[in-house]
Amino acid sequence: MAQAQTPQSGATQGDGEIVVTAQRREQSLLDVPLAVTALAGNALAEHGITNSAQLGAAVPNLQINSPYGNTQPNFTLRGIGVANEYNSNQASPVGVYLDDVYLAPRTSHGMGLFDLDRIEVLRGPQGTLFGRNTTGGAINFITRRPDLSGSEGYIQIGYGNYNTFTAQGAVETTLKEGVAGIRAAVNYAKGDGQIHNTFQGGRDPASTDTLQGRVSLRLKPGEGVNVVLRAYGGRDRGTQAAVHGLGVFRTGLGFFETNENRVGSNNSDAWGFSANIGVDVADNLTVTSITSYDGGSQDLQQAADGSPLDILDINWKSDYRQFSQELRANYTGKGVTFVGGLFYGFDRNITDNRFNLPLPPAGGFFQHYRQERRSYAVFGQADIALTSALNLTLGARYTRDKSSYDDAFAYLFVGAVGAADTPLASTVPCPGVAGTCAYDPAARFGLKDSNNALTGRVALSYTFDSGALAYASYNRGYRAGAVNGGGYTSSSGISYIKPERVNAFEVGLKGRTADRLLTYAVSGFYYDYTNQQLQDTRPGPVSFLVNAPKSEVYGLEAETTLRPMKGLRINASLGLLHSKYKELTLQGTNLSGNRLPFAPEFTGQIGADWDVVEVAGGRITFSPNVLYTSSQFFSPFNAVNVAGSGQVNSELAQGANAKVNGALSWSNARITLRVFANNLFDRKTYGYGLDLRGAGFPYNFLVPSAPRTFGVSVRAGF
């Protein structure tokens, strides 16, 4: 029988086999000819991962960075991400999915992780079955759903430093055995800022204040019919990320301190509804419909100067809506397995940003626009058994994307931070220098664009007698063209740029030993990458969205789990990455040969879960973890400066570093007590940097990563 529904127990079956749906059907992880990392929901807490922005600690060659802290994270897989782009209207080249529903707004990607069945991270272009904007890969967050048998639940409460209180829980009940069940889950976290603000009366940056909830209803109203209805909602009201900015006001401060008069709030909301309906129309054919409607907003008040002066204060404000419909068929016949279907997606972003700059007198720019995107696709992939051991995979996807940028206007104004503004001059539409066009409240600017793309996959996989799987594949990925959301000083800088494309070649080997003591997965890859979309900031300040014509990326990844003795499980992973711009010129400066941003050459992690001793009817487990990351750049300029620009791009980098995490827990069948520490040795690292010196400011924008955090939690199941 074809299986279109997401499995409930995805992390593992009874024999320890990991089950995933990376190819839109249930398979053992070791049978999937892709580079996939699967993380079980219970393993996330064991590794101190409570937010999507922390996933980089568990996935090779995955970097997660943001100028806004945990809000609007930028996922970079194997060097492919949004680079130094920070505007909310851009699509992530690493597709993010919630229960197979594509999430277009990047603000929705900064989700708390709770009551999950598993997370699947697919590395490399996924232009066939996932499709939309997946040049880097795809991340699928798969929530738990009712079992349709019995009732159960859990509650977990924790407390940590920075006065951080956390609580989450879930309850599930069967309304009718085998027919109907409902599950509800909630997640709450509130804590003080992790960065100390020395400004008298000022708030501390990087505080936590989140509340999320989810309800899932599962129905099996008839033979071969499976329905899952899901609704979720959440909000975040924490303070902004800390900023290291104007150097004179950092004198005497520690790394985890700032002197900022206006620490703003990262206010964001996300909600959505989805219906996943699967029908077995025959013994070997299942048809699945996935319908979703999602929305949300962000209101980020960001003091971007790290000083007690009002040099650069920004209010990033956007409202989102999206709808998607996928109709998919899963067929299993003699020697052939096929997945194919149709997809339609719509998303809208209405943005109202306000930029307060050090202009005499006090003033800045206001920006408004509406962006709408529509995507249509037809796709199919077949796995053909050439022999009992050799399989051929053929897949293709045709996509048509339409985008409009309209109702756009911007103006130069006089007005202090937080005060009403008085418009002086229209800047959009205005093709000239800011301030040269008379203010016209009725003037509007608009553009339209469309792209077509044929993407696909060809792979050969061979299963040895030992069960090991070897594969070689070619994948073509595509990311639609985009418009510059950062254009507010002149309409001359607002235009659509070309789509990204990736031709990816990959070989891999995965398997486990006969005694199951060792499980391994190794992959090597080469990318021919064209037209990466990135931001170029210039004096004015002016931001341009541009294409990097040619790049190459290649590397190696390995993941392994070792069980050398009863009660000891060792897991390790590494990523080797070479990235290079083969052709790139920005501001008249040749950057060919530079490394791509957020692409460290080496990442590695090793951890263990050691069942130390049985005590008081429970088991004590020690879980240490070490994560190493080599140096990386935050800008395509690397350490190169444009002549006469005032740039100091060498500041926009983070050196090699290692971070140690650990947990000690006691657990029995119902209760788990856990003590944890993340970044145990309080390593001082930057997570993001942006060139502001080149834009005319006397400093660069740098965001420190989290300091040491620690705490305790108790979880009880029922």
First and last CA, distance = 34 Å
Low-confidence stretches: 1-15
How many helices? Answer: 1
Largest sheet, in brief, is:
22 strands, antiparallel, barrel
How many extended strands? 42
**Oligomerization status of the protein chains:** single chain
Helix content: under 10%
Strand content: over 45%
Which structural class do you get from the secondary structure elements? mainly beta
CA-based gyration radius: 25 Å
Mean pLDDT: 93
Q: What form results from the Cα inertia axes?
A: globular
What does it look like?
With 718 residues, the chain is mainly beta. 1% of the residues lie in helices and 58% in strands. The protein has a 22-stranded antiparallel beta barrel. It has a five-stranded mixed sheet with strand order 3-8-9-6-7. The longest helix has 6 residues, at 41-46.
List the helices and strands and how they pair.
Blueprint: E1 19-20, E2 27-28, E3 35-40, H1 41-46, E4 62-65, E5 74-77, E6 94-98, E7 101-102, E8 116-123, E9 137-143, E10 152-160, E11 164-176, E12 180-191, E13 196-197, E14 208-219, E15 225-239, E16 257-258, E17 265-282, E18 285-303, E19 313-333, E20 336-357, E21 363-385, E22 390-414, E23 422-428, E24 445-463, E25 469-479, E26 482-483, E27 496-497, E28 500-512, E29 518-538, E30 542-565, E31 568-583, E32 585-586, E33 589-590, E34 602-615, E35 618-629, E36 632-633, E37 653-654, E38 657-667, E39 671-678, E40 686-690, E41 701-704, E42 709-717
Parallel strand pairs: 6-9, 13-16
Antiparallel strand pairs: 1-2, 3-8, 4-5, 6-7, 8-9, 10-11, 10-42, 11-12, 12-14, 14-15, 15-17, 17-18, 18-19, 19-20, 20-21, 21-22, 22-23, 22-24, 24-25, 25-28, 26-27, 28-29, 29-30, 30-31, 31-34, 32-33, 34-35, 35-38, 36-37, 38-39, 39-42, 40-41
